[in-house]
Amino acid sequence: QICLSLVKLLFYLAHSPLGSIVLLDFQPRQFVMVDGNLKVTDMDDASTEELSCKEDSDCTLDFPTKSFPLKCSLAGKCEGINEKKNLFNAYRYFFTYLLPHSAPPALRPLLSDILNATGDLQYGINETLRAFEKVLHLYKSGLYLQKRPLLLKDYISLKGFRTVEGEDYKCWPSYSHLGCLLSIHSAEEAAAICNSQLQCQSFIVTQHRTWTGRPLASFQSSWTDLIPDTNAVVYIKRSASSGERL
């Protein structure tokens, strides 16, 4: 969410009515999240000036660990230097820390492609935004889910119930520090996740949703202490419930 919001912001800066705008003091502390969108807190160090040049050798974009040769345009300006400077700063301050983590395994290669392409400035901001929107579409639609055996049949579902909230086993990347709370596309995906975790004996699908509209599911090591909840469905492994009275 943070990286996509940042890319949308940089897309606007690259195509602003004033021209391509560069953020000269590009640091994480210069941004805040407002209603799920990343915003710049200080525009004092923004500029529309692009580096003047006479030849291509005048257009080297230097960073502490990398340098990129750019083209000198017929107008005597280094082509795309503002856009590329913003994009590489996004890569080194945000993408490298946020993109490799927490995505479903099937989507990680796509995010790795974005990371590598922006780290080498193979993508401009237009291509970067399209790549992010493709990943978002796959994530929201569930198209990233690979065909696999249907596992939900191995669970008993009880509508209108959930277990008593409390500390349970933890997993990564959980939305709660008290247990294993993950976003899912469907109960079928939740069953696959539960089967992949040795501690998991049940999971609860709630009405709470993430910014992408995906429901949250709580994975638990037991299924005892059920209480009524009209907005929840608890799924219990048949193997865990065998011999017990529901």
UniProtKB/TrEMBL annotation:
Entry protein name: PKDCC kinase
One Pfam assignment: PIP49_C
Lineage, top-rank taxon, reads: Eukaryota
**Signal sequence, renumbered to the chain:** 1-19
Q: Where is the FAM69 protein-kinase domain?
A: 2-116
MF GO annotations:
non-membrane spanning protein tyrosine kinase activity
Database matches in PANTHER family: PROTEIN KINASE DOMAIN-CONTAINING PROTEIN
